[in-house]
Structure formats: C-alpha cells, structure tokens
C-alpha cells in the first residue's frame, strides 16, 4: 500500500462555495532548474530510485508520480503545491499542463517564506 501525503489543507471560498484545498509544500527545487527555468537533465531524467532516496523517490518522474497519487486520492478536491521558489512553481505548472491526467487538477503556487520566518 502506498501512502499519499499532504502537508496541510485550507478552506477557500470559490464562487460563494467553501472548498477544501489539499496542500503540499515544496522547497529546494530551484537548484534543479537551469538559468532558463528548465529542469536540469539529472533531475528530469532521474528514475524513481525509492530505496536510495526515501519512499517518495527522486527526480521529476517521482514528482509527477506523487502528483498523480495526490490527484487520485483528492477525489475531485483541488490540489496545490505551495512552492518557495517562483521558477519552480512555473516549471511544475508546465509539467502539469503537459499531462492530461494532471491538467486542471493540480497547480503549483508561488508562496514565499514570510519575512519574519527568514
């Protein structure tokens, strides 16, 4: 059995309706992007090596697998990845748009660390 994790959840009002949004915090991905905002080859092509890098694996393949699992268990609720880096949020959104099963079901949102926590 695979465990699907979320960092938090939020209740938002959209079009007058209260909706639960499932949230996953993401940080440290800017180091895997080149100067043009593209994934570096080592990250983009990394296989899901699970045991060596932890249960979730490593690389873009593992991240998209995690996104698919999260969307599946969300059962129609919105899923957001809150990214500390704007370029990483944009790169993840590009990946979500490329995949039919993720397009419109998950989004990456740039959420910088509040000043008082830096």
Defining traits:
globular; four-stranded mixed β-sheet; alpha/beta; 118 residues; 4 strands; 3 helices
Please outline the helices and strands:
Elements: E1 8-14, E2 17-26, H1 41-44, H2 60-74, E3 79-83, H3 86-98, E4 106-110
Parallel strand pairs: 2-3, 3-4
Antiparallel strand pairs: 1-2
Can you give a write-up of this model?
The chain has helices spanning 41-44, 60-74, 86-98, and strands at residues 8-14, 17-26, 79-83, 106-110. With 118 residues, the chain is of the alpha/beta class. It has one domain (8-110). It has a four-stranded mixed sheet with strand order 1-2-3-4. Strand 3 (79-83), helix 3 and strand 4 (106-110) form a beta-alpha-beta unit.
SSE class: alpha/beta
Global geometry: globular
Rg, Å, rounded: 15 Å
* Count of extended strands: 4
The strands making up the biggest β-sheet line up spatially as: 1-2-3-4
Mean pLDDT: 87
């Amino acid at each position: 059995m695979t465990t699907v994790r979320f960092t938090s959840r939020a209740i938002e009002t959209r079009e007058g309706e209260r909706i639960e949004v499932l949230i996953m915090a993401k940080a440290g991905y800017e180091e895997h992007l080149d100067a043009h905002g593209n994934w570096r080859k080592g990250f983009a092509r990394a296989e899901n090596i699970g045991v060596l890098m932890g249960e979730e694996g490593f690389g873009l393949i593992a991240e998209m697998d995690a996104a698919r699992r999260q969307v599946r268990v969300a059962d129609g609720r919105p899923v957001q990845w809150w990214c500390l880096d704007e370029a990483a949020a944009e790169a993840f959104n590009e990946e979500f748009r490329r995949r039919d099963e993720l397009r419109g079901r998950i989004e990456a949102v740039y959420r910088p660390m509040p000043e008082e926590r830096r």
